[in-house]
What we know:
19 helices, globular, single chain, about 475 residues
Amino acid sequence: MTMTTRTLWLLLIAILGLRLASLGLYPLMDTSEARYAEMARKMLVLGNWVTPLFQVDVPFWGKPPLSFWSQALGMKLLGINEFAIRFPAWLFHVASCLLIIRFAREQVDEKTALLAAIIFSSSTLGLLSAGVVLTDPALSFSVLLASYGFWRGITQGDRRWALAGFAGLGLGLLAKGPLAVVLVAIPALIWTLCYRPWHAFWRLPWITGLLLMLLIAVPWYLIAEQRTPGFLDYFLVGEHWKRYVVSDWAGDLYGSAHARPIGAIWLDLLLAFFPWTLLLPALYFGFRRSALAGRYYAFIALWALATPVFFTFSGNILWTYLLPSLPAWSLLLAGVLNHGPWRTGKTVTGLSLALLLPVWLPIAAIDGRAFDRPNNQRDLANAWQQLQASKPGNLYYWGRRSYAGEFYTNGQARQVKDFSTLPDDPRFYIARRERDLKRGIQALQPFNCVEQLRASQSVLFRCEPLKPPA
């Protein structure tokens, strides 16, 4: 017994619907998601649509603005809330699913196409990326659009889709930079060298396409450098060379390097593709038995391998870097599951794997215990705002900067590392993680501090200076 096309459509719509319904059910979490959310909020309220801001007076040179533009626009249309700022990622994901379906339906059949979109949408990283405030969903969509455009252009002579592919490269440059071009060029060039469709290759609209790509991306790069000189050197040399080759790169202006062992990206792939990782061995038998033979599957396999191979020798990585490769892994696995010897009796297995994480996520969000962590500052920030009516005072995060705290207080929360730098406030609030309370507790001795709330493993104090003895 196999799944019908109608069943597959309903399953995909259910997964996408569950993810959409979950977008506003759980808070923004420090560090990455809340940091990008706060930068998008600053972009909106300050009206600075050129340079993302790390702080009000500090430009953020680490990423181009495409994701921030989409997130700020989401909040402009839907209000400043979790749903609005995550909604653009969901739209990027839906657009990616439509491209995946079109790609596989043209080359294989509709069932394989729908199964690939289901696998992509129900994998760990695919599901999370469909509603996360990061730059990776925009990059992944851009790489997918560029890859499909190249394929249509070189195999079908389709000029319009080829130009759309170049537009995808331009969007990729605005999503994360030159990395997008690299991740598309590696499989495209290797495939071309292997199959040698030189006539079709040179007939691609190279001049018009490259001009379109540059027209989309270059104006922002030039304006950004003009607004904040030094951006191009930091972004192109620091972020795209030193971050890749130096695992403990000390030049990061906005955080710390992520030093990982060489080859760790392949372990990340197992997590990113879970639970479909359990069926990956089928790919070996699929290639061995020619179930995944032909130019199409060769191109998809090169695309799937490009990202993990590229990051194999880099120690400064995050597991989200794998997202641009997941559509290809999904297309490969769908092909072998729908046309290999495993297609019989896969209905129950497919349904259980496809719904495992999409059903769990909204349940976990409603339950709330999974998000009771110091990274979540929504409840604490809301409590401080309610106290302003009767007991006004500024809010300071002692020690660690809380991007979530800044987002939920509309930028009013500030970081303080040394109490000697505190403004001369008659009354103020201090937020501190519970596990950090014992360290430096003597710094509170000059103040009379009364605990107001404990939430998400953090403590909120209301403080005022001790009155000197008469």
